[in-house]
Amino acid sequence: MTTFAAGPLLLGVRHHGPGSARAVRAALEAATPEVVLIEGPPEADALIPLAAEKDMRPPVALLAHVVDEPGRSAFWPLAEFSPEWVAIRWALEHGVPARFIDLPATHTLAWGNEEEKGTAEEKKGQEEKQEGKGEEEAGASDRSADADVRIDPLAVLAETAGHDDPERWWEDVVEHRGGAGIGADPFAPFTALEEAMGALREVYGVGGHDRDLVREAYMRLQLRAAQREFGDEVAVVCGAWHVPALRQKPSVAADRALLKGLPKAKADMTWVPWTHRRLSRVSGYGAGIDSPGWYGHLFAAPDRPVERWMTKVARLLRDEDRMVSSAHVIEAVRLADTLAAMRGRPLPGLTETTDAVRAVMCEGSDVPLGLVHDRLVVGDVLGEVPRSAPAVPLQRDLARAQKRLRLKPEPMERELELDLRGETDAGRSRLLHRLRLLGVAWGEPTASRGSTGTFRETWRLCWEPELSVRVAEAGVWGTTVLSAATGKAEADAVAAHALADVTALAERCLLAELPDALPVVMRVLADRAALDADVGHLAQALPALVRSLRYGDVRGTDTHALTDVAVGLAERIFVGLPPACAAIDAEAAEHMRRHVDAVHGAVGLLGEPGAAASGGIRERWHSVLRVLAGRDTVPGVIRGRAVRLLLDDGELGQDEAARLMGLVLSPGTEPGDAAAWIEGFVGGGSGGGMLLVHDERLLGLVDAWLTGVPTEAFTDVLPLLRRTFSAYEAGVRRTLGELVRRGPGARGSAEAAASGIPGFAPDLDPGRADAVLPVLSLLLGLGEAYDDDFAGVAR
């Protein structure tokens, strides 16, 4: 059966419609054209044979990007149920030429860039015009803009047919039909749709899609060229909206005039994997659909689709440990059929199946229904493309690394635990860190639910199709992941303005193991550190630098170049911190308190026994803390924190700490400053609650001060105290309450022990101490056996 008497066969479709896809296959089988023309960029003609490769599995997309600016890109996604994909596959199976006939990507990409510039200039011009004109002219401008509204052809047709839901209407008239179309005529659906679109084009013209005039002119020229070569036995698969325009026959000169002067940009094109989720409308894809997973199911299961769908839903819910039986499946199918009959639909659609699943399998709950929607209605299917597809060298190197490290890209988010002591996991870590540095956010570091040692990392992985564009963009830095990451790190170091940015970059270079980039980063770091006089900036930069030293240790990286810079940075902080903490307001004091904490942690790592920089650095830092603790011009929150840090390090005795607290909490100190001192001493998540629990003298001092705060000042200090004590765990707060109720500080430790308060006694309890020794011995690696000498030392 042929249908070329009236000219070429124009098959108007809806992109990504399974009913349209089946109808296209049936029409091509019946017509057997000599050539198939498809809406798409003609630069991709050479890529069409790759669709026959066994490694090609949709969903996939044609990716075009500007050679010199890979970030300027465009995608043409195709799923298994896309009519265009079906047409390509049919042509390859039957040895028929297939060609793309839409406007070339070289114009599309350049046109998009020109539109962005034009939109910005137009917006600026409109703003200037409206500033100088009255409300009447501004209103006329608004009305003019409203007149150019882009219409949705399917929505207009559905409304004309009396339906308020375009998706449901399209399902009823197209997607739920058999592959044979209306009756036995495979061309009837396309004839009817062409008539409908023709009526719409007569009323709405281009419907606000001004670029379509140019695209359709190019398509007509390509259609004429195919007719000259193959005669009228030409089939065209394109969006139904374009069919009336392709049926028109303006002069060749008129079509060429529309194409004259179009901007151009040199473009490269390839196939890239795509996902069902990126086909969905919620992803922002212009031709997206609401339910790619459902449409894929309709295309793959034309017989008994509802029964098969309910079976898939039941399997998913069972995998999530929900009780779903065969009886549930049978009842859900019956309910879906009943709902379709009541609503006058030829077959149950997604609405009916969803309602049935909610009522029968989910017991009315939308929580498991959300899982069904996410996993099945939308879905996370990731396509594959063959290795023979064109790719930038960086993409090929990344693919080799992924295969070598057995790290396959997957569309579903998952966590990956890495043990850096193993060669494979260490390689995975390096790859992910290098990609992050390149802006390819395949993985994001996250907090580990297991060990927090420096030899472990936890990553959250999720591969998005757009990452292919990011890889292409990163190709300007090098042809391999290593060389590209090195080049990007060097450029970022030179361009960095803040000292903290450079130290963070040094840390990332060590994590990514980029030894060739470190000399440049270190040179920039030394220059920035020498010029930056802001103590806050220096304090913010030091922790990342010291962490870099630690990461270098666990990864076996040479970090000697960092050591001198870190020590020099610490020395400058020691000199500048006391003056920087004097005479500042409460907000600045809180920021500086956090800097003090960060520096203290960094010095603790930098000054560890055996560390290259350990000589005297901790002693010098303790001297700085003593200065901070004793200066009246330093805000209370910083003085309190300095005392606490000295106490924790054993540089300050309990008696001296109690004396300093007593001085601060004396009546001569302003209540607000005293409350800030308490916040610094026992707040900030530093374990201050347990300190008060186990040292009744300190708790007694705080309690006595608090009860003596004047009424007029209590309201001012209450928010700060509430913030301090609310950070404690519930058990700590409860214990403190019990101690306060019993009167802490009113009794000595012996009286506290007599009252039954755990942990307080005048002397050491040998039995309780000995109970700890076996565990302590295991932690120290001494085994279960320990002698009396060790026990005595431990006591």
From TrEMBL:
Region (Disordered): 112-145
Family annotation (Pfam families): DUF5682
Superkingdom: Bacteria
Skewed-composition ranges (Basic and acidic residues): 114-136
Protein name listed in UniProt: DUF5682 family protein
Species whose genome carries this gene: Streptomyces mirabilis
Classification lineage: Bacteria, Bacillati, Actinomycetota, Actinomycetes, Kitasatosporales
